Amino acid sequence: MRAATMGLTLTLALVGCSDGSSGGAGGGAGGGAGGNRAAEAPFDPTRLAQAVPSKLAAPKGWKGEEPLVRSGGQAQKVCEQAARFSCVGLTAMGGSRYRPEKTDQTESFVDFQLLAYDSVDNARVGMKALAADVRKGKSDGLKPLTVDAGADETDAYAYETRPGVVLRVGTVVAFVFGESLPQDHDLQSFATFQVQRINTTATGKNPDA
User: pTM here?
Assistant: First the structure.
C-alpha cells in the first residue's frame, strides 16, 4: 500500500511543479447534501490548488511540504503515463504531505492526493479506478475501515500501520493515506479535514483565510 501512495506522489512530481456517506471496504454512497452540492461544479486548477492541504493549514504538531498541482494537458500527460487511474475528464491533480514536527516520529506522515474531474459522473469513475488501484495486490491483511468524513462516496481500509481512504466530494476525488498516525490525528480527522477544505473551496472561500 505504501508503494501505491508513493507511486501516486511520484506521478504528480514527474515533470515539475506549478502553482497553484461513510463506507468500509467497497465504499458506499453518502448524503451529498449541504456543502457537497457546491463541489458538484468542476474545479479549475486554481480552485484545486486551494483545496490541497497547505503548509499554513497543518495542525499543531505537524509541518507541511509545498503542495504540487498540475493542470490541463500536464495532468492528462502524467495521468496517461502512470496508467493507474481514470484520465477521462481529468482537469487537474495535486497533492501535499504532512509530517510530525517531533523528530522521534520520523516514520509518521499523511499524504493528500486530489484529482479534479469535469463532471460528477467522471469523478465517480475516477474514484472507482483509484480505489481499485490502491487495493491491488493487497487482499491479504487488508481490513475494512469505517471513515465518516461527510463525503459523497467513501472507500476506507487499514493495512498494517498504513490506513487509507479514497473519497469523492462532488467532482473531486481525494486519496488520504497515513503511516503510523497518532490517535489525536488519525485517518478520520485528516479525512474530515480534507473534505472540509474541498467544500469550503467550492463555495468560493479560501480555506486558509
Answer: 0.82
